[in-house]
Amino acid sequence: MDRAHAGRRRPVISVVVPVYREEASIRPFLERVEPVLDRLGDYEILFCLDPSPDRTEDVIRKEIHRNPRIGLLLFSRRFGQPAAMMAGIRHCRGETGVVIDVDLQDPPELISEMHAKLKEGYDVVYATRRSRKGETLPKRFVSWLGYKLINAVTDMHIPPNTGDFRVMNRRVLDEVARLKEGHGFLRGLVAFVGFRQAFVEYDRAARHEGEGHYNRYLGSLKIGFNGLVGFSNFLLSATLAAGLVICLAAFVGAVVIAATFFLGTEYPTGIPTIIVLVLFMGGVQLVSIGILGEYVGRIYDEVKHRPQYIVRDAVNVESVRDVEA
Hints:
The protein has about 325 residues and is of the alpha/beta class. It contains ten helices and eight strands.
């Protein structure tokens, strides 16, 4: 379906910016991104805002009065960054689309180079980080481990040292928008739809202002876990393998005990041994049930068909559709 809206020409490029509690970052971000977009042609900047306790909404509305090419999607409550990105992708109108954070860790100036690379025949151009300033060693380790694990157990390749900062053409935007998964793991969804993809390298800067409120340690872990569960049955298979190994170990143990009994050898017994075995087996069972519950919970969320987000207000956005039919 053609996503262009009647009466208004499709912009050359749309910039989707998920935001939450970022009042100090809005203006510096626009000061850097607007000159870049002016050189590319007609554009739109679509802020996708989870309701914030600070003045983020007021700042964005003020900027809209200054520049009518800025738009706002305001949600009815906080739905999270993945939902905000998907909302922006479903509502943006550009021939191409960019997803970028407002904190200026990803340089807006790189958009020109990424957009130019699309003209070489690529459908997606993502940014790969050469260095990651302002990120702690534990966070970098979690990121590295997450990419390694996801790429090892899924049939898709998600490039390491990448985030959601990427440029996509209209075909890819429409295909991603058609996907209905509630988790909204954009890196995995873009890898799933395929098409020709390329990358540009850059040095990631520290945040321009304050601390991030979307993806701290738990947020990053949750997004990575959603990617692992959403695109692979590895954990279920690993649970089955662990159960088989434990059964085999139990069988070997039973054989050893029987052998010592018939050979008349004294076998060490006692409460500590029993406690250790009971705790071990109980832990394995709880972990197995928990993993199974994660998959069942996601099935439950999908079959309810609840909207991934609900838009409370839209400014300079011509069509508001919470979930496409």
